[in-house]
Amino acid sequence: YITNNLRMSEDPGTSPTGDISEDESLRPQRFISNCSDSDTDEYLKDVAGFVKNVRYDLICEEQEEELHFSDIGWTDSQLEGLGLLASLSEFMSKIFSASETTQLKLQFASSVLAQFFKVWAVSAGHAFLPWYYVLTMPPLIAWRVYTYTQQQWQYFCLDYCYFGNLAIFLILLFFPGDPELFILQFCIANGLLYTGAFSFRNSLVFHSLDKMTSTYIHSAPVLLVFGIRWFPEQASTFWHTAFPQTFLVWNVKWNILAPLAFSAAHAIFYTVLVYGILKPKENIITSFRYLKAKKSTKAIFGPNPSFISFLIVQFGIVLVMTGVTVLTYTYFYLHLLQILVLVAVVTWNAANFYVDVFRVSLSKTKKS
Predict the structure, then answer these.
(1) How is residue 181 annotated by DSSP?
(2) What confidence score (pLDDT) does residue 357 get?
(3) What is the pLDDT of residue 72?
């Protein structure tokens, strides 16, 4: 409103907003002077949003008179506040108006730096692993829920991967010193949650926040429990409660039965909620529909696998990975090997992505 009226032509009968038609009201100095003292604060807030677009020299040229804010009677503190608000407005405008290319560059750089940090944290900075997980998981999950809802993929956020991360998050916050719950935490992170990186072809595509978030969801818990399991004293340095310093020997109850029960509880919850209550339309994608459409799934189960077969296979994977976690929980180098396999797979998937994408781009460049 302010900007439009300050930039109006000299014709007093024309108003772009249709609200001001008097000649005297068109002059910026008179317009500002008419504001009462009680309106000053509100006016400062309003004008800060427009100040980036208002050209001082253009106003002076069109109105043929100089406009000095000091002539209006504003105090130095008010003028300083206006300047700070204008600077903040311009800074935020640059961030949100950044081109798509600039945003991709920022995502790429931040993703690469995050990988350097994780390598350092896993190898030497174990004390920062719990805080890294607690501070990064909530905003990334919130962003994922928001973006997936916009694309009608929100049912992915009810999958085991998110259910498992929630359990790991809560145990880390409220029961970090419980050695039995840590075994459950370890088995969730290195079991079915770990295999999600393979099922959904996670990849280290640094310029894609979506792909990096997917990789993070399946890999961050593995790195977290690795630091706690093998370096408990260092990992406890900055945490509010010390992690177990002596871990229990593997046992059937917590290494096998507890992870199976957790997986069964999620399967029941998911089936009842999604297919019993919500009943998503055919155009809504769920994890079952996504995996069902894959060529590898059709090659194994036929052209139209049922949801029951999907649950059976998932439970079988949990059973196999439960046996694997008994070994990785017991032996350091086997757990390290499991992490290296994950890193190798997501890196290979990223290599395939970049080569396929840039090969097409290079071919187009050569033709042109």
Answers:
(1) H
(2) 74
(3) 54
